[in-house]
Amino acid sequence: MYARVIVDVPSKQTNRPFDYKIPPTLKDWVEVGSRVGVRFGPRMIQGFVVELLEQSEVDDRKLKSIESVLELQPSLTEELVELAKWMSRRYLCNEITALQVMLPGALKAKYEKYIALAEDSGSDSLTNDPLHAKGEMQNEIIHFIKKKQTVEMNELLTRFPNASMLIKKLIINEILIETQNIKNRVSTKKVLMVYPPDNITMLEGYKQELSKQAHKQLEVLQFFIDQPKPIQLSELTKRLNTSSSSIKSLASKQWLKLESTEIYRDPYQKHDFKQSYPLQLTEEQEKVFQTIRQTIHAKRQQLFLLHGVTGSGKTEIYLQTIQQCIHQNREAIVLVPEISLTPQMVERFKSRFGDLVAVLHSRLSAGERFDEWRKIQQKKVKVAIGARSAIFAPFTNIGLIIIDEEHETSYKQQDNPKYHAVEIAKMRSKAHQAAVILGSATPSLETYYESHQSTMQYLPMPSRVAGRAMPTVQVVDMREELKEGNRSMFSRPLHQAIEDRLNKKEQIVLLLNRRGYSTFVMCRSCGHVVSCPHCDISLTYHMNTRHLRCHYCGYAERESSSCPSCSSEHIRYFGTGTQKVEESLTSHFPGIRVIRMDVDTTSEKGSHEKWLNQFRDQKADVLLGTQMVAKGLDFPKVTLVGVIAADTVLNLPDFRAAEKTFQLLTQVSGRAGRHQLPGEVVIQTYNPDHYSVISASHHDYTSFMRTELQSRKQGIYPPYCKLILITFSHENMNLLVRTGESFSEYIKRQQLPSIIDVLGPVASPIPRKKDRYRFQCLIKYRGGWETIHLVHKAVSSLENTVKQTKLQVSVDVDPQMLM
């Protein structure tokens, strides 16, 4: 038998499978999807088996054998292996990159170098070897390795810090040999478990045999008589306030059994989820539910757009359709944007389905994430809920995929492979004949358009549950506030509304789409703006650390009391950040309790949960934050939502700017008045007449969509075409321009009928990042694969330039950001 293996070397030359022999001892273990250890050149590396063969076209004498299988059960299913091939072609990435993204970080190989003596090297002849002046040092190294047989390279260099050149020469001259081992980044967790005997009545007899002075051992035996279940040794010693020696003594007499047992790291172990039950559906919900239910029962592929206003009860639809899936003994994947994977969302699913749910997201430790993934792989769960990468959950019988807030740009990966989770969901649903629900109160225009032009089924839910009214929305023109002499960041209507809610002991959500204290720092004497020395972007001031920071490359510098350009002391902090709003709230409303949620305050593990729990328990009056407070939150006491600056997204150089503004305003408005108390929204803007602001204030998706579609049609942008963004970056701007023009000409020469336009090369909206200039080309096209193949050829034609100059080329198919 032979195996085709994709090796862990992400380069163009190795982006193909290599044939390896399967030794008889591994024949039963090697399957499609297995991770294997193989020799590639002189190195031992990880590979993925993508095909099994009876015969190989390569001469048998030239083939190496697979050295090891890295786990008993294949890491990937055959379906995921096929999906990786498709991703490689679709998103123009190496196949190994697509395979790696499907696995938890714990399974990404960690390579360790080991040094051993060559078999034919004798230490006697080594001392007088004329090649080496440092005979004594060489002898020491040889004896050190001989004693240990193999030594990890890092350990050897630590032991002999001044001998790195000597060690290198010994390896070159084949006196020492270098090998490489593959190790997982995280291993399974094992604990010592204490097991009582099968026949519990025997414990009474053992008690009689013990001395009356053996108090602790008697206590242990009595514990198991009362609770005859296995328990962790550490837990038992804690409960009985005893040492492990007492228990080990009982185990040595074989009265109890001590065994090392593998356990799962459970991030929600200490949470007590109260069981919830299906709610009575409204007429609107029932109609939607029955439509999806029939598809699940028919086991056929179907895409649904569930367009439900905020508070219409989409989550209950998700829960009840998943229940249908479980009844069929099939599995479900639920995706939520990382930003809104709140404890609230996890709680809803865990309280309904308990231990049948695995949770996958980046806030878990590597070990926790690995164990949640293993629960899926070992079929211990039926539901996987998580952010973007949970779409690759290794289920084998998927019946339903749900993508909540489907319009969110976070479903598009920004690094290679630049996949979109919605596209992956469509491919997986084909393979499993599964239903896909795309849910949103503000669907992306592409999805909405598709649901009215293709086989995707449109399911509207235009009313809130229990007939609750949508919140009233007031748009405040901040230009008028300025004219009236109000220079505060709070308009008079918002100031009054906050005061009113504080008096009524109700809660407030304030949205500002910026973190930090000020958005830029400028000298009023000469106009100098403090910018990042490595990127073409102004630095943001963070008051708590008194630092100016670049949010692109991480560069930071301390605040200065004078201008670095003209030495003037007239430095001013412009713009408004979340820290500044927090400070302003406390000065305007003495005694107000504010919780600030942004990247700076939620970087620690568990911080999201901590802040939201405090807000839910009404330990704060205001929840102030960036986009993370705009969606997915449901608090009964929130009756006021304030948008400090509605224009931050609107002014971005992006054709989706109006759509993102409308979505953000609509989503954050939906946090108010979700229960018995009526809600109110105050939107502060300098563009009160913009159609995205007007439509959001009226909760009118249809009017926004009509205006925006007209604008897109005129400019020929999605959904009326597809896009591919190619970004070139290098320290030399002239080289960038030449390469961009060469690429653009190559595409234009082919004259494909599917290509509508090739725009550029032009400087990117952020023209420099991390000391590298950036230029981009944008291709507008209709159709599919032929344009993607052409771009692949065009990028390949730049191969020599890329090699010689270290130019970087990034290709983004269906980009969500043009920055």
Verbal overview:
The protein is α/β, with parallel strands linked by helices and 819 residues long. It folds into 6 domains: 2-109, PriA, 3(prime) DNA-binding domain (GIY-YIG endonuclease, 3-Layer(aba) Sandwich), CATH 3.40.1440; 116-177, no CATH class; 197-255, no CATH class; 283-464, P-loop containing nucleotide triphosphate hydrolases (Rossmann fold), CATH 3.40.50; 472-519 and 575-711, 3-Layer(aba) Sandwich (Rossmann fold); 722-813, Ribosomal protein S10 (Alpha-Beta Plaits, 2-Layer Sandwich), CATH 3.30.70.600. It has 26 helices and 33 strands. The strands form 8 sheets. A 7-stranded parallel β-sheet has the order 14-15-13-16-17-12-18, sandwiched between helices. It has a 6-stranded parallel β-sheet with strand order 19-29-28-20-27-26, with helices on both faces. It has a 5-stranded antiparallel β-sheet with strand order 2-1-4-3-5. Helix 7 (202-209) runs antiparallel to helix 8 (215-226), helix 11 packs parallel to helix 12 (314-327) and helix 22 runs antiparallel to helix 23. The model is unreliable at 123-133 (pLDDT under 50). InterPro entries: DEAD/DEAH_box_helicase_dom, Helicase_ATP-bd, Helicase_C-like, P-loop_NTPase, PriA, PriA_3primeBD, PriA_3primeBD_sf, PriA_C. Belongs to the helicase family. PriA subfamily.
